[in-house]
Amino acid sequence: MRAISPRKWGAPEVLAPVEVERPEPALTEILVRVHAAGVNPVDWKIRGSGAFGETGPTPILGYDVSGTVEAVGPGVTLFRPGDEVFGMPRFPELAGGYAEFVVAPARRFVRKPAGISHVQAAALPLAALTAWQALVDTARLSAGQRVLVHAAAGGVGHLAVQIAKAHGAYVIGTATTAKHSFLRGLGADEVIDYTAVDFTTAVRDVDVVLDAIGGDYAARSLEVLRPGGHLVTLPSPDDLPPAERAVELGVHTGWTVVEPDHAALKAITALVEEGKLHAAIDTVLPLEQAAKAHAYGEQGRTQGKIVLTVDQPATPETPADRDR
């Protein structure tokens, strides 16, 4: 089968097409013919440094997949060949989404909503599960709470805005002015241009902060939380502010990493089917242009998600191309 693999860990140019043996499903596994694969920051971080270690002789990147069940292994009762599914298998192990086929445990997938395309479905799993687990499971978000989402127009951020709104929250997002109308269209109640305004002077009495940026954002975000509030940071545990300061302010802090989660993915699917959640697609490229997708994503200018099409050609276009 066709796949994309880094020849070594490094810049986007290390990604290259390879031919590898098609996997076969083992006990409780399914084989999925991949139609589209989502691209996430973790993909280019691993490509750059091999962060989670090399898996197998030919490491294949990619966690988000949407496709059709090709075959099922012994013991699988959830799916049959021909079913359309999407999911985030195996994280943090390399799942091999940048390929024509993926094999993984059946319960790492759910049925794709009939009303969305494979491209839209492939954009959802990792980012939506990250937002869900941070807001719903970790911060225990409830109706009426005030939520601040940093990098609100990004892959995780724009889904977090929608998930928070679906739970009845008042949502504040940080983003450049050019992305404010996009975020208001998703339901954001307030939007702050972080390049023009210090958010710590513009926001107060927040119940939950979702920090997808890192650096000093976590420490600064403590100051806008009300007592009993939650700060959830995503990039690194090193970004967490000193515990003493959190205790002094009476707030909770934590770092979370996304996990495969069948129940949460089904809940996310329900929001999609109810029209309360959708993935904005920034860029679609063919599998063979994965290096271009990574180079573009690393610029940090995306509004929504980047997706690779595996089973059909895609117009190789990015917003940067359209601006030329």
Strand-residue proportion: 25-35%
Could you give me the name of the CATH homologous superfamily of the largest domain?
A: Medium-chain alcohol dehydrogenases, catalytic domain
- Overall number of domains: 2
Instruction: Round the Cα radius of gyration to an integer and report it.
Output: 19 Å
Number of strands: 15
Distance between the termini: 35 Å
Topology as a string of helices (H) and strands (E): EEEHEEEEHHEHEHEHEHEHEHEHEH
**Count of runs of 4 or more consecutive helical residues:** 11
Structural class: alpha/beta
Main sheet?
7 strands, mixed
CATH topology of the largest domain: Quinone Oxidoreductase, Chain A, domain 1
- Please tell me the CATH architecture of the largest domain by its name: Alpha-Beta Complex
Overall mean pLDDT score? 93
Shape: globular
